[in-house]
Write a structure and sequence with these properties.
With 223 residues, the protein is α+β, with helices and mostly antiparallel strands. 37% of the residues lie in helices and 17% in strands. It is built from 8 helices and 8 strands. Strand 6, helix 6 and strand 7 form a beta-alpha-beta unit. Helix 1 crosses helix 2, helix 3 packs across helix 5 and helix 3 runs parallel beside helix 8.
Length: 223
């Protein structure tokens, strides 16, 4: 039985103070990118804004990383995999909706390719070998999943997962699944959370180290 650890963690941080929480729960300060190859085959740099939908743990973290990728025009936090009626934070957190916390990325493929977004996704945005868990959060809503927006995206993602498996880039098997489902935007208070809440305990503890690792690993595409 998986549970959403974000709410209990935040309560702990408030109760004992952030310093105590760092000692008792560990931190992501050791976050670093896994060195992985670029995709062998990528989508062409077509004109117009394209969309990608990715899930990989807390959408605050995923949103923070991809909002700072050059060529990304907008990132929306939300839910994917379930129904519109259950696309609310409280329901998704109960782990009964089939939704995953996800992000929708609007990007310019003439500046950043779909394959590059996948490379960031697998290398640093989340741990693709962690089943239904990322950092302090556990449950199926934190699963690793790609919601391809076209058959071409699905083909590229499937091939890249196979490529990474063949190169043994990770110490364990990749658990990322290709899924289908409509994306639903999350509540307004979840949007642009990292930039609007720089001192929030969760952001300080988990997301700022991730952002530092992203900038170190991808200096040419970070902003």
């Amino acid at each position: 039985m998986y549970t959403n650890m974000k709410k209990p963690l935040l309560a702990t941080l408030a109760a004992v103070g952030i310093a105590g929480a760092f000692l008792s729960t560990g931190t992501a300060q050791g976050a670093r990118a896994v060195v992985i190859p670029a995709v062998k085959t990528d989508l062409p740099a077509a004109a117009g804004i394209q969309t990608a939908v990715l899930a990989g743990g807390c959408f605050w973290t995923m949103e923070a990383v991809f909002e700072h990728v050059k060529g990304v025009k907008a990132v929306t936090a939300g839910y994917a995999g379930g129904t519109k009626a259950t696309a609310t934070y409280d329901q998704v957190s109960a782990e009964t909706t089939r939704h995953a916390e996800a992000i929708r990325i609007a990007y310019d493929p003439r500046i950043v390719s779909y394959g590059t977004l996948l490379r960031v996704y697998f290398s640093i945005a989340h741990d693709p070998t962690s089943l239904n868990r990322q950092g302090p959060d556990s449950g199926t809503s934190y699963r690793s999943a790609i919601f391809s927006q076209s058959p071409a995206q699905a083909q590229i993602a499937r091939a890249y997962i196979a490529q990474l498996g063949q190169t043994r880039a990770f110490s364990g098997p990749i658990v990322t699944k290709l899924e289908t489902g409509t994306f639903y935007a999350a509540e307004a208070y979840h949007q642009n959370f990292y930039d609007r809440n720089p001192t929030h305990p969760y952001i300080v503890m988990w997301d700022k180290p991730k952002m530092a690792a992203f900038r170190a690993a991808f200096p040419t595409i970070s902003r």
